[in-house]
Amino acid sequence: MPRLDFWYEFASTYSYLAAMRIAPLAKEAGVEVRWRPFLLGPIFKAQGMETSPFNIYPLKGKYMWRDMARWSELLKLPEFVPPKTFPAHPLGASRVALALDDAARPDFTRAIYQAEFNEGKDIADAATIGEVLKKLGFDAAAVIAKGGEPAVKDKLRANTEEAAKLDIFGAPNFVTADGELFWGNDRLEQALAWARKH
Length: 198
Fold this sequence. Notes:
Elements: E1 3-8, H1 13-29, E2 32-37, H2 41-46, H3 53-56, H4 58-74, H5 91-99, H6 105-117, H7 126-135, H8 140-147, H9 150-165, E3 173-176, E4 181-183, H10 188-197
Parallel strand pairs: 1-2
Antiparallel strand pairs: 1-3, 3-4
Helix pairs in contact: 1-6, 1-10, 5-8, 5-9, 6-7, 7-8
């Protein structure tokens, strides 16, 4: 089966959109998706940025918030709620995503995005992560503890380093088995078509 790596960041608004729509599109295309959380902070710092470009360039940020509302309406998603802190601090959620197995990661990812961008919750708060895990039927304390283990921390670090080596500079990104990189939620369909063809 053709494969596509879905590189996403929990603080990324456009990653949220991609996460909410990738599964049915990939199934229809016959493409396997690997969910690859990583951290944008180190990548932005390497580019000389201390925060999101949407904060650095206010007009770009203003456009993004409006665009998110339009996309949410188009995709029939719940009302988009800008988080109180942007970008959010994604470290804990990213580690927990990697503490879960591959089959559980998509549901957790979508649920964290919904808590962040639909319910206005702080995903840096362990209580928010715990609530999400409990709703999905997990032992929240055990999974959060596993997310703090050295092996999981190393895995997130390795994912972020791999993303940098792939020349990823934002999120979301979709990378095909032959190394083709597609940046942005609006490139998802193109990435799936490429993955299937190549």
